[in-house]
Each structure stands twice: as structure tokens, then as C-alpha cells.
Write a structure and sequence with these properties.
Strands 2-3-4-5-6-1-7-13-12-11-10 form an eleven-stranded antiparallel beta sheet. Strands 9-8-14-15 form a four-stranded antiparallel beta sheet. The chain has three domains: 4-10 and 136-305, no CATH class; 19-126, no CATH class; 315-384. The chain has helices at residues 23-40, 100-106, 108-121, 198-205, 209-221, 245-251, 257-274, 293-305, 315-344, 352-369, 374-384, and strands at residues 4-17, 48-52, 55-59, 70-74, 79-83, 94-98, 131-143, 154-157, 163-164, 171-176, 179-186, 191-197, 236-244, 275-279, 290-291. The chain has eleven helices and 15 strands. With 389 residues, the chain is of the alpha+beta class.
């Protein structure tokens, strides 16, 4: 089996800040939230765009669990900020969740710097040891021709160095018919490993910007382009390592950025050592089963390149790909709805084009008669797709 690493890197980051949110920021967010609530009465997905100290923000009409009154998205970082009211907290007033794309495009060191810039713009004074990292995800995308996994080949070591097969409540397997296509082992607050058919997921969820990321990575490696469709389609699997708060704090005493960066190789390597995908042999002692070559390749990648970031593709290019796909999706649905309208109107195949023209005229008139101006409705749509327009 000719295995190759396509790319690797951080895929998600969550943290809390030991700060009290300034009253001035709370007042600004309260006003924007009230506007978003008014918009939400007409549109459930409504958000309010606003500017604060140079930061473009999208404020949602709702807060978040845990006493967070405000839910805010920052456009520069594609991060979700959850903030408590200044009067309701003596500390740890902010939680931040960073999505995959800024980590993929720029790396975790850049994300750290951008988080600190946004905190400064918000007027947040972060004390020493005022950053609590509660989750990191790290992904390794692998070219794995002919690979298919068997859930029974996972071996998990307990703290007492004995080996046990995961119990059903700790293991989540999904797939079609007899062929498993994804699996997760472990707990989300401790440590967890996921392995799944990434190309299948990309196609199902229309995450076609991943093709650009993979193509750029392969080009930088001097490797052949990947094939995503047809009989010669490449098989791309992702191994995803997740370190939760209990594992980061309890096992590695991660108290902030420094301790995370200093220990990241050991943190990720420890997950791969305690939850292994193996090659079965006749030995009944599963702890003596050898690692699968895929597992050894992933472990080597983590050990050598955990903090390395190789710039590959621009954010502008990914936005272009996302926008083109979204527009195509709308066009496909519009045509499908129009055909359905024609069929239910009793039209035949040779009458469809005339019906489409008639339908266009009806839609123009409905748009003119709508109680809300088109500019207002389109602005509400733009708010639902931050980063695309």
C-alpha cells in the first residue's frame, strides 16, 4: 500500500479568556443584538453587521449556553466570540471558537496573533495565565489507495497499561452496508481519534474548497495531482486527533499558548499511542499487535511537523470557489423548482421554455410588490453569508 501524507495541520481551536468584558463593548453589542432580534422576527437566520474599533463584527440575535449574552463572529478571523455581560462575571468572561479555515490557511501561530489583536480592539486585558485552551483538533489527510478500516482493529490502552476493546457507548461507527466509512474513538472532553473517508465527506457536504487546498499542497510537494472523480478517483482518508480540556489540563497541565506549543508533539503523539489502529495477528494479546502503516505514517508526520505551516492557497481563491459553488447550488435549485412549477401547472416538455419566461415575469412583479425593498432583503442575505460577499 503506497501511503502518502497530503497535508496536515490544526483544524479547530477553542479557548477561554480570563477577562471582564468592558461595559462600553457590552453596550455596543446590546444595541446590535437588539437590531438582530428585530431582523430575526422576519428572518430566523438574521444577523446584524457592525463595526467596533476597526473590527467588522456579525452579531447574532441570541447568546450561548453558559451565561454568554452575546454571540459575535469576527470576519477577519472567522472566529465565534461568546461574551458575558460585564456585570455578570468576575472573570473568564469570553469564550472563542476558531473554525478550520483560518487555521488551514495561516497556521495556529497566526491565529494566536489575530486573537490577541481582536482582544486588544475589544479592550480586553488578558492577565498572565489568562488563556485556557479547552480543545484542539489536528488533522492529517492521507492518500491511501485500497485502504478500508475494520473497527475491530482499534486497540486502546487504559491507564493501567492493559488493553481493552472499546465499549459501544465509547465508539461511534458509521458507513454504508458492510463498508465502514467513519469512526470515532474516545471522549470529546478528554482525547478522541476520528478516522473517516474525507473525500466522501467533501462531496456529500460540498466542501469543494478542499480540492484547492489539496491541489496546492500536492503542487508544493512536487507530487502528481489528485483525481477526485471517475474510475481512477483517489482514496483520501483523514485521521483527526482531538485533545479536550480534561486531557490538556489533567494530563499535560496546559495553561496557555507556551505550554501548548512546547508540548504539542507529545500531546498529539500521546493520543496516537493510547488509541492505535493495528494489523491483527494470531497473538491473543492485542497490545502486541503492530501499528498499521497508516498509523505509523501519521505518527511520524505529527512528530516532525506538528507546528509547521506551509502556505498553500489564498483566502481569496477559496472564497471564489465557495461563492461559485453556492451560486451553482442556487441555480440548480431554481431550475428544479421551475420545472416542478411547470409540471404541476400542466405543462409539457415543449412548453417549458415559454413557461420559464412567464414565470420570470411573475417573479419580477412579485418582487416589485413585496413590502420589503429588494436592497433590504439582499442585505439580509449577505449577512447570512459573511466572507462570501
Amino acid at each position: 500500500m503506497n501511503l502518502e501524507v497530503i497535508r496536515s495541520g490544526f483544524d479547530k481551536l477553542e479557548l477561554s479568556l480570563n477577562v471582564v468584558v468592558p461595559e462600553e463593548l457590552c453596550e455596543h453589542l446590546a444595541s446590535a443584538k437588539a437590531e438582530a432580534e428585530e431582523l430575526a422576527k422576519r428572518n430566523q437566520k438574521a444577523k446584524c453587521g457592525t463595526l467596533y474599533n476597526g473590527e467588522d463584527l456579525i452579531v447574532r440575535p441570541n447568546g450561548a449556553a453558559g451565561g454568554y449574552a452575546y454571540s459575535v463572529e469576527t470576519s477577519n478571523l472567522e472566529a465565534n466570540w461568546f461574551l458575558r455581560k460585564s456585570t455578570s462575571a468576575s472573570g473568564w468572561g469570553v469564550r472563542v471558537a476558531v473554525r478550520a479555515m483560518p487555521l488551514v490557511l495561516n497556521g495556529i501561530a497566526w491565529v494566536k496573533d489575530e486573537l490577541e489583536k481582536t482582544a486588544d480592539a475589544f479592550g480586553l486585558s488578558i492577565p498572565p495565565n489568562g488563556v485556557s485552551i479547552s480543545r484542539i483538533d489536528y488533522a492529517v489527510d492521507c492518500l491511501a489507495p485500497g485502504f478500508s478500516f475494520n473497527p475491530n482493529q482499534f486497540v486502546v490502552h487504559s491507564a493501567s497499561n492493559t488493553t481493552r476493546h472499546m465499549q459501544p457507548e465509547e465508539m461511534d461507527v458509521s458507513g454504508k452496508c458492510w463498508k465502514a466509512s467513519s469512526m470515532r474513538v474516545g471522549g470529546i472532553t478528554n482525547k478522541q481519534i476520528g478516522i473517516y473517508d474525507k473525500l466522501q465527506e467533501v462531496k456529500q457536504k460540498r466542501k469543494f474548497d478542499m480540492f484547492e487546498i489539496w491541489d496546492a499542497a500536492r503542487h508544493a510537494q512536487g507530487a502528481r495531482p489528485l483525481v477526485y472523480r471517475g474510475e481512477a478517483t483517489d482514496e483520501i482518508w483523514r485521521v483527526e486527533l482531538r485533545a479536550g480540556k480534561d486531557y490538556l489540563k489533567g494530563r499535560w497541565d496546559v495553561t496557555g499558548w507556551g505550554s501548548l506549543f512546547d508540548q504539542i508533539t507529545d500531546i498529539l503523539g500521546g493520543i496516537l499511542k493510547t488509541m492505535r489502529y493495528t494489523v491483527p495477528v494470531r497473538d491473543t494479546n492485542r497490545s502486541r499487535w503492530d501499528n498499521h502503516p497508516l498509523w505509523n505514517m501519521v505518527a511520524e508526520e505529527v512528530e516532525q511537523n506538528a507546528l509547521r505551516h506551509v502556505p498553500s492557497v489564498s483566502r481569496e481563491r477559496l472564497v471564489e470557489v465557495r461563492l461559485a459553488d453556492k451560486l451553482q447550488w442556487f441555480e440548480t435549485n431554481m431550475l428544479g423548482n421551475a420545472i416542478s412549477h411547470a409540471a404541476l401547472s400542466g405543462k409539457h416538455g415543449d412548453q417549458v421554455e415559454c413557461h420559464l419566461e412567464e414565470l420570470a415575469q411573475k417573479l419580477k412583479q412579485q418582487n416589485r410588490d413585496h413590502r420589503v425593498p429588494a436592497d433590504v432583503r439582499m442585505e439580509a442575505v449577505r449577512r447570512r453569508y459573511p466572507g462570501l460577499v
